[in-house]
Amino acid sequence: MIISPYILLLTIAGFAFVIPILSGRIGVPAVVGEIICGILLGALGLSVEGEGQIIIDFLASFGLIFLMFLVGMEIDFSIIETRGPKSFIIGFFIFLFTIAISAYLMSRLGYFGTQYHYRIFAALLLSSSAVGLTVPTIKELGMLKTDYGQTILVSAFIADFATVLLITVYTLYLQKGLTMEMLMIALVFILFFAVYQLGKLAIWHYPERLSAWFKSDQPSEIGVRASFALLLVFVALSEIANVEAVLGAFLAGVMLSLLFRGGTILEQKLYGIGYGFLIPIFFINVGMQFDIGALAKGGIYLLPTLLIVALTVKIVPSLLFIIWHSLRESIAAGILLSSRLSLIIAMAAIGLELHLIDKAMESAIILLALITSIICPTVFRRMHRH
Amino acid sequence: MKTIIIGGGRTGKELAAQLPDSLIIEKNPEKREKLEGLRGVEVVIGDGCDEDLLNRVGLKDASTFIAVTGDDDVNYRAAQIAKRYGVPRIIARVEDPEDRARFQDLGVDYVMFPTKMIANLIVDLMRPREEKGIDVPFKKILVPILDESTVNRAFKEALLVASVARAEITVVSSPDIERAKMELPAREMGVRLRVLMEDERLMDIIKRHLHYRGCIIIERVKEHLYYPDCIIIDQEEVGFMNRLLGRGIVLKLIKCASRPVLVARTYRYYEQILAILDSSATSESVGRYALLLAHLCDARLHLLILENIPELVEWIKRIGEKANIQIIENWIEGNPMIEAVKEVKSGKYQLAVIPWRGTGVIRADLIKKIINDAPCSVLTVV
After folding, report:
1. Interface predicted TM-score of the whole assembly (ipTM), two decimals
2. pTM beyond cutoff 0.80
3. A207·B345 Cβ contact <8 A
């Protein structure tokens, strides 16, 4: 059924409003509800045509960019400052093992595409984690200030950060080869460093002006405007540098976290814009584009193997936790780190766009994200409540 | 170069006895006989506020001017004249705490409050230790002296703190710094001083190995079996690259000393102290040290509260009330780091007490920036 884009937006907004209430009652993340609703809308055959579709596609892709911006904001480097490098080192090694095991398993399991770069991309996808799920779970169990909780968080942060970076480098490599353009990624990081230094200077020299950005009584919402400007500077620069825009968005989020961590009112406003409007459009759109046919044809068969790989690549390296914690805690940490959600779906969308994965694989990954996001945090909670 | 003492009462007499080559001006001729018994002390009978008399006894050439009569007005006027004549070091006694501000405005180097100090001491003695809650160790102060200018800065601030805390100062210094430059003011302030004169090699090592692992100052001090309660050090000029890399001798010292380090910038008694508090474990220590110094210096304590920590704030207020400290709460709205910078830079405070490293709410980079660039003295607490 072809409808006007506003009717579709209204439908999306209606679902976006109802889903968190329902998913809260059932006990699943709102994102899961949004994707399922999207699948239902897609199954009903709702679609828009022409310019209307362009608008919806743009809003969804901006939703993805905003999602990566907010994921970047979740990265809290102060954990490394407060806890010392121990958790960072463990997290780093866990990620190294994860990517090694992931690459090994993908190369052994031949049916993920015949070309090796399909497998590498899939290996990278499966190395990711879900900071967005890890933080609330750890918080809920009162482990935020424990060594154990912090190490899990740092491991999730490193996994997400490194995955975004490696996927960006890898896709650029596949598109352009080993050219000078690879250095453009370095340029993005140099800009990142320069903006960070400027930001620090601005905080030191103009605290009065900046202070207003984070107060609630700002009719012009100068903080929100500045955040959007920062986001778009990095996104535009990524486009110029031929790097995935999501990396720019992610770095802009990390920057905001590095400079203004704890600016709760501004954070809340940005979360409101993101999770209240743009991000549900992305996830519902992901659901609507979900290809049940492709899932039935091949994706569903990929799922069990993907699930096993997804759990193995996180649980086995997490046994490193055993140096300081019990076996049960180490396995529990691995299970929590196995949950995937927004990032893997976002990265799968990029993979599909660049033809690095097919529809079947994408649908299997979305399903994997839905399953692990519900099951893994639940199992982690149970293991700790016992 | 001599010391001129105004007032030949008990304090003046005691001072003169410890400072040979000094001149004492006393109004009451009856006291002449007692004072003249002091070896090497010249006694002049007259008014300490008489500019002509002061000129005649060589005020222009005096190295130190000490006004210790029992009358604040006399001490003030005498100090005012000495200030006008550019005496390098002026010390004044103030009886009435309300007179404190005008003495400090005058720019007197050291202002002593015997009444207040004795009252605090008696109250301290009467109160059980556990009840005070601010019984953090502050009896041994270490001052690493890298060059001559430190004597006039970090050492001066250390003397002020030590005099109110009744603490001992240990100085690690190179031999080319004259001992007398430290010993004389320490004696004048009644502070016990130990000077660990080190060979030039030590100073070379410190300067050459600023950024390497291990901190020489602390290692050498440990060799002397001396564990300071607090280290007071001069602020440091940090170059562009070191700023980018977050390096510097003060930062290194703070990192490896694992004890409170005070970066001196105020060189006077603290009147307004700022304590930056959040939910980190260090905040309790920050509170304790801030309370202690506010108590010792009779300063106002401003709490900058970055997170919802009602228990800690209540505890600090309770202790503050017992110790007669005026506490001002400031619960922030907005971004904690920006609000912290705003307060530190406001110029209202002589001392900021902060955690020694990032706490999650306050980033390590900001701590470094405050340590390097704050307009006031900064005490970092472990």
Report:
1. 0.71
2. no
3. yes
